[in-house]
Amino acid sequence: MTGLNEKTILITGASSGIGEATVRELAGTGAKLFIGARRGDRLKALADELGETVAWRELDVTDAASFQAFVDAAEDRFGRIDVLINNAGIMPLSPLAALKRDEWTRMIDVNIHGVLNGIASVLPRFTAQRSGHVVNVASIGAHLVVPTGAVYCATKYAVWAITEGLRQEQDDIRATIISPGVVATELGNDITDPQVADALKVWRRKSLTPDAIARAIRYALEQPEGVDVNEVIVRPTAAG
Ligand code: NDP
Q1: Residue whose CB lies within 8 A of the most ligand 1 atoms, among 61, 91, 234, for a mutation test
Q2: 124 lies in a domain?
Q3: Residues 157, 169: Cα–Cα separation, whole Å
Q4: Among 85, 86, 187, 217, which residue has the most ligand 1 atoms within 8 Å of its CB, making it the best to mutate?
Q5: Which residues form the Ketoreductase domain (predicted)?
């Protein structure tokens, strides 16, 4: 296993759920963590709690300039960048026939453009230093489509493809897909269709807690430089 204490790790969507759990998991490794999301109050509280190895900055992943400023600020603060965890995502599920065009656009912006903005912001550094690790949080929805999930799953199929493409193109850079099954988080709180919101509650009866995904991310990060964990799929059992 590789010690993470010399590394600087950037984490998006760190204000709740899987992102927050990943910050907590990695804070124990001694790594320098630079964390982002739109809700700065939550980031500040987390950084204050965890100490000076954690720094934060507000980030809107849909905004290329915001993402670049986030990455530049991380380098200013900690001197280097080793890992980007593209975790931010949204999931306003709905049937296609509901024609929720705005929600489709928001999902594509956050879940796909957000990941691409992140890759674009670190790739020149990673290629110049001939090392780096991009971890993209996709979903089990990158492997199967469920009713009301057509657009959400499409965005996660895209994350899968983008990550695999990055891995194939870059010999010196590690690329990992993390594909969680159902996890109990705030994801889906923005579902506007009451029936779909109820269905999500039923799915969540068998769910993981976010720390399970944080451990999967840590596993991928702690491998030696020559080992690229391509994908980890983590799903709950009834015992969860
Ligand atoms: P949460 O809703 O708890 O967390 C989502 C995070 O994304 C928040 O920190 C939110 O922060 C951030 N975010 C949303 N929009 C933006 C934006 N425009 N810019 C920056 N940050 C943003 O959900 P999860 O922890 O569950 O989700 C994390 C990832 O895991 C997502 O990619 C999701 O698709 C994926 N996933 C989750 C599963 C689950 O069952 N929970 C299953 C499979 C995959 P803020 O609002 O402060 O900006």
Answers
A1: 91
A2: yes
A3: 18
A4: 187
A5: 7-186
**CATH code, domain carrying 218:** 3.40.50.720
Tell me which residue range forms the domain holding 161: 8-234
Residue nearest to atom 44 of ligand 1 (CA): 139
Distance CA 83, CA 184 (A): 25
Does residue 1 fall inside a structural domain?
no
Contact, 160 vs 201, CB < 8 A? no
239 found inside a domain: no
Assessment of whether the complete model's pTM goes beyond 0.80 = yes
Q: CA 140, CA 63: separation in Å to the nearest integer?
A: 26
Does 2 fall in a domain?
no
What is the chain's pLDDT, residue by residue, as a tens digit (240 residues)? 678 999 999 999 999 999 999 999 999 899 999 999 999 999 999 999 999 999 999 999 999 999 999 999 999 999 999 999 999 999 999 999 999 999 999 999 999 999 999 999 999 999 999 999 999 999 999 999 999 999 999 999 999 999 999 999 999 999 999 999 999 999 999 999 999 999 999 999 999 999 999 999 999 999 999 999 999 999 999 886
Ligand 1 atom, smallest distance to 109 CA: 18
Q: Choose among 135, 120, 126, 147: nearest CA to 61.
A: 120
Residues 223 and 173: their CA atoms lie apart, in Å, by 13
Counted domains in the chain: 1
